[in-house]
């Protein structure tokens, strides 16, 4: 597992959350962490005291996979900033259906494919994508691993 965070994140705090996960998972060989200087919650450059959610990403040729795509909101956003394909993967049949519905035009144009699968057994070849994203899913999963009383559930 690779856990990343921007040091300017105002939602998930470095000192409280990121460092707590590092401490909790420090003995696991399959977990690594990276803290990016100057980046916010969306992993884009923080340019003011306010969260810079509007900063534009420049990934015009990247092929993107959104893991845990939910209803396809991030797929929709990525389709606007890349000329290439944006695919989604989710465990939930309902989420896959909603993602396809939300991004119907891109699905019809073969710019988007939404797959129902478990992240522990993804039917995807290595190096298929230039960028793979996981938004909020990891926060929810890690929240189950590290509740306030430090028990693993």
In short:
This protein is an alpha/beta fold and 153 residues long. Helices cover 29% and strands 16% of the residues.
Describe the structure.
- The protein is of the alpha/beta class.
- It contains 5 helices and 6 strands.
- The protein has helices at residues 14-24, 73-81, 93-102, 104-108, 137-145; strands spanning 2-6, 32-36, 64-67, 86-90, 114-116, 131-133.
- Strand 1, helix 1 and strand 2 (32-36) form a beta-alpha-beta unit.
- The model is unreliable at 50-55 and 137-153 (pLDDT under 50).
Strand order of the largest sheet: 5-4-3-6
Shape: globular
Provide mean pLDDT, rounded.
77
Based on secondary structure, the structural category is alpha/beta
Order of helices and strands: EHEEHEHHEEH
**What is the CA-atom radius of gyration, in angstroms?**
17 Å
**What distance lies between the first and last C-alpha atoms, to the nearest angstrom?**
18 Å
Indicate the proportion of strand residues: 15-25%
Helix content: 25-40%
Number of strands: 6
The major pleated sheet works out as: 4 strands, parallel
Topology (SSEs and partners):
Elements: E1 2-6, H1 14-24, E2 32-36, E3 64-67, H2 73-81, E4 86-90, H3 93-102, H4 104-108, E5 114-116, E6 131-133, H5 137-145
Parallel strand pairs: 1-2, 3-4, 3-6, 4-5
Provide keyphrases for this structure.
two-stranded parallel ribbon; 5 helices; 16% strand; alpha/beta; 6 strands
């Amino acid at each position: 597992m690779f856990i990343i965070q921007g040091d300017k994140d105002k939602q998930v705090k470095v000192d409280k959350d990121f460092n707590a996960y590092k401490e909790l998972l420090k003995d696991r060989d399959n977990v690594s962490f990276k803290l990016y200087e100057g980046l916010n919650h969306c992993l884009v450059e923080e340019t003011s005291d306010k969260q810079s959610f509007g900063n534009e990403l420049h990934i015009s040729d990247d092929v993107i996979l959104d893991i845990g795509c939910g209803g396809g909101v991030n797929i929709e956003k990525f389709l606007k900033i890349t000329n290439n394909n944006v695919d989604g993967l989710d465990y939930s049949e309902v989420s896959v259906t909603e993602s396809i519905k939300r991004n119907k035009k891109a699905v019809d144009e073969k710019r988007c494919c939404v797959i129902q699968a478990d992240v522990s057994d993804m039917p995807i070849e290595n190096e298929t994508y230039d960028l793979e994203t996981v938004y909020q899913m990891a926060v929810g999963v890690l929240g189950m691993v590290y509740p306030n009383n430090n028990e693993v559930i």
